[in-house]
């Protein structure tokens, strides 16, 4: 039998070695224990187990404390062993022995994650070019380029490659790069480190661009993996910071496109409490190197600061600190107390502003380029085409100048074309040259080739006309040059504007946190002051400091753990925390997607980024800065939008050969028609027309049309734009999908495996029904007194079942759970594993009542006779050794005796979530099989399955965490694509093994880390089918985009190559340029339609009920209506009911 109270493992006195010095102390929350037999079962798991010193289990606190040798038994194994006993376990904490703590003074390994904003990327070829720039660079661990975000993330060794080198490398690739941040991270020497760096890349326009960048990163020593996103304009690289630095990675990319380091985050195998974090601070007011040394010493002497290095030239301080010991604001206050001003230089907000400005600058740049080129293109077009063909009397272009063969129209067109060709076109030349110099070709190379060919040909034609008699007016195509660049500039402007719309969801998320927060000057004394009712009383307390009620405003990024924040009506919540004072309703829709405001009171959890209602709240900060749930969501969405779906790999491969292939087709078209026009007896009429300028001019125009028309941009944008918009829509609806690969796999799911406790059920006991004896049910007055007596007696119980009964009694009486029942309790006693006894005197009563509440054995031992029918039902339970009797259906019976006479009983069960059966129904309607797995007994599992509509054959009970993982593997071997849904540490192995892991946000961090999809609304199981439906919708849009991009080239290319010239049909170079611009814009526009996604009506509880009612009225009952009728009516919550087992 376990101890009734939790045993405390007191430390040994100082100065004497403790017998537990080499042991770790692990605390585990254990759910499902109902009696002493349960706690004994948990203790029995560790009896005589090697490496376990002691085990203490508290039934009251639902906790187990195990002192063990962590080298022989890990904390995760402790959890697994408890799960094997049939209980749900959650790891609370593990305190390692001091001898196992890492030496914080040991030599540290420095890695840098550098984030660069890159402007000018327009396609996958651009991102590839940036990545390729780092191919041969030493010190780069990883590089990831995102076209949509215009960002490159490089993880590198700062000792080998500086952040500026990364920027230079990206700029060498033909893009403008701006350094956003470069974050160093030092961990202990024993730690295994890797860094993830983001590099912003500008200039990528298609998949060929990203292929160039990837080629630059391929086989680079120190780089483990890389992702290049054309749509987000960034590369994310995972690398060894000891081998290659983020700046080196950016330098590699810069050889192809303009790149800048956006961020560089170092990850370590050490636990968070032994891992330092990097802080970059701008310090203003430094006078000389002496003041630099003073500030360095000042910061380094602060407790929790590992190191501080300040550069006098940049006035930038790089600080390594331990967030568990010291906060950012403390460091800032120390700097400002010394007479200097400090500014956080690598905050997410400033990075977002820089990126936003960079995107706005690029959009405005293309708008200006379009307007400028259009102002020159229109006159050229009029002089070359419109006036000679339709307004011949005004054709001044045919006026011949004193120089034979030189005409006024040609001179004017040449003068108007040069500013467009070499002014606006300069950016195309720059990008094309850098990409070709590194052995790759992008869309810009095609633009340069097409327009330069037209320009050079026109100039040569003018020269020949001057040199060779009879000095006829030459055939020029200056209008082709100007109009092509005009159309391409328009296309880039529209494309970048549309791409900016794809990230609106992410921008909204990043703007949710307020810039400033109001905190109390002295949070500890303020918490004490809140316990007093009147301000006058507070002032008279000895030692009270008036500063306790003083407030101050601080930037949100400077909030620290344990700060107490003041929230007034309408305030945005700046960090995660727990309410300490006040009541209000909070709008969490922007983070979780929950439509209705949630009531918050002392003890309730708050999420940063949500909005307070009309009440005032004070809350204590538990997570701030980059550790908040909002920051993690933003990071997850950014990573998802940067990642590449498997379907995109084929598009990337095609894009890698696209530009050389197009150039080859252009050459074949030119020389092919040159030959055909001379050998065919009746060539197409266009070759015979004088207006066409001769056969060479016709062939040249066809060649230019082929080169300009074929655009790899649409192919490269098809997937990432859809992924970006889709994941943003999912985040707005509380569905976080971790990347394109998870999206694609989710569309193939054939079977969903649901964990029971905490997923299908609430995980807490609730009263399912009650029965009173004839005496106590004879009138409403007696029934009310029955609930008052039972509720008051159980209100003193610490048992989970006692809490459930007390709360249910208060609900029946119409009072709040926090409110007590009027009356007095005396002679209270709790018999472990049996029940409780007490004497109750209700308010305004003169007679006290003796209460006995417990199992059948407890009442019999007290000399109380039970109702035969009820005792028979209980005798069919598992045992008579618990406080209650547990029936095979999962229900727990509790018997009540008042004044030594049987008065009734209650049955309790785990509470099933209201939408559990609707979620199962929706999954089945999607054609997906549904199974349930649990560590609980089979009778309970079958009862739950019967209530939610899961087939008996798809129920697995009594399954340990390892067996859950094995079960998923067996299903996969049978050909199923498995999605596992869970919320606990015990589910994490199965979540990781499944093809798709879906975790509830209310679960553990371990489970959410192992999952591919995270559902922010833990109480809405209909988000499970909604997440799969959204994934399918996104993937259909991707396939539609790819089909359009490929079909556009397949259908249009024959026209451009002149296949239909015999019919008089061909594609003019200007029309080819317009079509090329339209293709990219149409693909991005198609992806933007995903913003209007909504879950179908049959995926909501109301919609299912309405559809069932309509079809029942029409008599057209489907299988799922039949199932619905069989599964009983809908209730506020659904308890586990008796099922035939």
Automatic annotation (TrEMBL):
The chain crosses the membrane at residues 369-391, 403-424, 445-468, 474-494, 654-675, 695-718, 1042-1065, 1071-1093. It is an enzyme of class 7 (translocase). GO terms for cellular component: endomembrane system; membrane. CDD domains: HMA, P-type_ATPase_Cu-like. One of its GO terms (biological process) is copper ion homeostasis. It is a multi-pass membrane protein. The keyword Transcription regulation does not apply. Residues 1-21 are annotated as: Disordered. Residues 24-90, 112-178, 195-260, 277-343 form the HMA domain. It is found in: Endomembrane system; Membrane. Keywords: ATP-binding, Copper, Copper transport, Ion transport, Magnesium, Membrane, Metal-binding, Nucleotide-binding, Repeat, Translocase, Transmembrane, Transmembrane helix, Transport. Pfam families: E1-E2_ATPase, HMA, Hydrolase. InterPro entries: ATPase_P-typ_cyto_dom_N, ATPase_P-typ_P_site, ATPase_P-typ_TM_dom_sf, ATPase_P-typ_transduc_dom_A_sf, ATPase_P-type_domA, HAD-like_sf, HAD_sf, Heavy-metal-associated_CS. Belongs to the cation transport ATPase (P-type) (TC 3.A.3) family. Type IB subfamily. This is P-type Cu(+) transporter. It comes from Drechslerella stenobrocha 248.
């Amino acid at each position: 039998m376990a101890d009734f109270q939790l045993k405390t493992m007191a430390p040994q006195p100082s100065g004497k070695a403790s017998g537990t010095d080499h042991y770790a102390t692990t605390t585990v929350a254990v759910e499902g224990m109902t009696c002493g037999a349960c706690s004994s079962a948990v203790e029995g798991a560790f009896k005589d187990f090697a490496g376990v010193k002691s085990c203490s289990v508290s039934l009251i606190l639902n906790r187990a404390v195990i002192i063990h040798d962590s080298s022989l038994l890990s904390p995760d194994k402790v959890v697994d062993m408890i799960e094997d006993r049939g209980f749900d376990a959650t790891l609370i904490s593990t305190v390692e022995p001091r001898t196992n703590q890492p030496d914080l003074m040991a030599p540290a390994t420095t890695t840098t994650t550098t984030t660069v904003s890159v402007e000018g990327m327009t396609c996958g070829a651009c991102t590839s070019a940036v990545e390729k720039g780092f191919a041969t660079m030493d010190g780069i661990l990883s590089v990831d380029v995102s076209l949509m975000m215009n960002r490159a993330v490089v993880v590198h060794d700062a000792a080998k490659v500086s952040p500026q080198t990364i920027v230079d490398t990206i700029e060498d690739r033909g893009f403008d790069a701006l350094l956003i941040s470069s974050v160093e991270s030092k961990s202990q020497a024993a730690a295994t480190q890797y860094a993830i760096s983001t590099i912003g890349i500008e200039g990528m326009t298609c998949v060929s661009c990203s292929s160039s960048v990837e080629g630059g990163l391929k086989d680079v020593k120190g780089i483990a993996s890389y992702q290049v996103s054309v749509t987000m304009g960034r590369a994310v690289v995972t690398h060894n910071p000891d081998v290659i630095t983020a700046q080196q990675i950016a330098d590699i990319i810069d050889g192809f496109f303009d790149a800048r380091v956006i961020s560089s985050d170092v990850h370590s195998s050490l636990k968070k409490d032994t891992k330092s974090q990097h802080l970059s601070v701008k310090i203003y007011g430094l006078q000389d190197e002496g003041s630099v040394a003073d500030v360095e010493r000042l910061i380094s002497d602060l407790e929790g600061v590992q190191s501080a290095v300040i550069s006098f030239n940049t006035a930038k301080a790089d600080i390594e600190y331990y967030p568990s010991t010291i906060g950012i604001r403390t460091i800032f206050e120390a700097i400002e107390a010394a007479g200097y001003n400090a500014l956080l230089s690598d905050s997410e907000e400033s990075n977002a502003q820089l990126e936003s400005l960079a995107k706005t600058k690029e959009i405005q740049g293309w708008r200006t380029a379009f307007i400028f080129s259009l102002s020159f293109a229109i006159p050229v077009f009029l002089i070359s085409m419109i006036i000679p063909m339709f307004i011949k009397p005004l054709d001044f272009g045919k006026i011949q100048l004193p120089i034979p063969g030189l005409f006024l129209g040609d001179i004017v067109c040449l003068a108007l074309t040069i500013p467009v060709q070499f002014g606006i076109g300069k950016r195309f030349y720059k990008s094309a040259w850098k990409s070709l110099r590194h052995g790759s070709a992008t869309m810009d190379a095609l633009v340069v080739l097409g327009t330069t060919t037209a320009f050079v040909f026109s100039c040569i034609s003018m020269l020949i006309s001057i040199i060779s008699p009879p000095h006829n007016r030459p055939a020029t195509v200056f209008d082709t040059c100007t109009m092509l660049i005009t159309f391409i500039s328009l296309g880039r402007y529209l494309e970048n504007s549309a791409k900016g719309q794809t990230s609106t969801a992410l921008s909204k998320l990043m703007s949710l946190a307020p810039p400033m927060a109001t905190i109390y000057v002295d949070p500890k004394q303020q918490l004490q002051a809140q316990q007093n009712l009147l301000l006058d009383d507070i002032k008279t307390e000895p030692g009270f400091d008036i500063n306790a009620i003083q407030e101050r405003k601080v930037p949100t990024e400077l909030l620290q753990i344990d700060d107490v924040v003041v929230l007034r009506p309408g305030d945005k919540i700046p960090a995660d925390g727990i309410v300490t004072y006040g009541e209000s309703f909070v709008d969490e829709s922007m983070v979780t997607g929950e439509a209705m405001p949630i009531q918050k009171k002392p003890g309730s959890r708050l999420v940063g980024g949500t909005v307070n209602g009309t009440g005032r709240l004070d809350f204590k900060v538990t997570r701030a800065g980059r550790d908040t749930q909002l920051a993690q969501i933003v990071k997850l969405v950014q990573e998802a939008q940067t990642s590449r779906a498997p379907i995109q790999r084929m598009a990337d491969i095609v894009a890698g050969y696209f530009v050389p292939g197009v150039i080859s087709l252009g050459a074949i078209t030119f020389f092919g028609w040159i030959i055909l026009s001379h050998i065919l007896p009746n060539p197409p009429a266009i070759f015979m027309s004088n207006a066409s300028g001769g056969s060479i001019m016709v062939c040249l125009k066809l060649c230019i049309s082929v080169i300009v028309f074929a655009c790899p941009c649409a192919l490269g944008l098809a997937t990432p734009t859809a992924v970006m918009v889709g994941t943003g829509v999912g985040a707005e609806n509380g569905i976080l999908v971790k990347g394109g690969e998870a999206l694609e796999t989710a569309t193939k799911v054939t079977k969903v495996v649901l964990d029971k406790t905490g997923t299908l059920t609430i995980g807490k006991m609730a009263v399912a029904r009650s029965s009173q004896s004839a005496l106590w049910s004879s009138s409403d007055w007696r029934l009310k007194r029955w609930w008052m007596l039972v509720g008051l007696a159980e209100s003193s119980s610490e048992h989970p079942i006692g809490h459930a009964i007390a709360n249910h009694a208060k609900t029946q009486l119409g009072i709040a759970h926090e409110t007590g029942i009027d009356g007095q309790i005396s002679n209270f006693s709790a018999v472990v594993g049996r029940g409780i006894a007490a004497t109750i005197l209700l308010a305004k009563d003169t007679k006290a009542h003796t209460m006995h509440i417990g199992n059948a054995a407890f009442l019999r031992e007290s000399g109380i006779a039970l109702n035969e029918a009820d005792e028979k039902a209980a005798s069919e339970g598992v045992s008579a050794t618990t406080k209650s009797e547990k029936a095979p259906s999962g229900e727990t019976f509790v018997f009540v005796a008042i004044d030594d006479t049987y008065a009734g009983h209650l049955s309790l069960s785990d509470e099933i979530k209201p939408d559990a059966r609707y979620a199962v129904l929706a999954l089945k309607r999607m054609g997906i099989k549904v199974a349930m797995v649990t560590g609980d007994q089979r009778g309970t599992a079958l009862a739950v399955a019967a209530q939610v509509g899961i087939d008996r054959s798809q129920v697995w009970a009594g399954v340990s965490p390892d067996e859950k993982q094995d079960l998923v593997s067996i299903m996969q071997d049978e050909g199923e694509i498995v999605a596992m849904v869970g919320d606990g540490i015990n589910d994490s192995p199965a979540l990781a093994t499944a093809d798709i892991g879906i975790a509830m946000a209310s679960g553990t961090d371990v489970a959410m880390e192992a999952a591919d999809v995270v559902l922010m609304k833990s109480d809405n199981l209909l988000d499970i089918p909604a997440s799969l439906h959204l994934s399918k919708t996104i993937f259909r849009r991707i396939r539609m985009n790819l089909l359009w991009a490929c079909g556009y080239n397949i259908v249009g290319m024959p026209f451009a190559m002149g296949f239909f010239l015999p019919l008089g049909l061909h594609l003019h170079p200007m029309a080819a340029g317009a079509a090329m611009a339209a293709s990219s814009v149409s693909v991005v526009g198609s992806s933007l339609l995903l913003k209007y996604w909504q879950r179908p009506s049959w995926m909501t509880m109301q919609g299912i009920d309405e559809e069932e009612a309509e079809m029942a009225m029409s008599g057209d009952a489907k299988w799922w209506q039949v199932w619905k009728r069989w599964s009983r009516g809908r209730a506020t919550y659904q308890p586990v009911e008796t099922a035939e087992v």
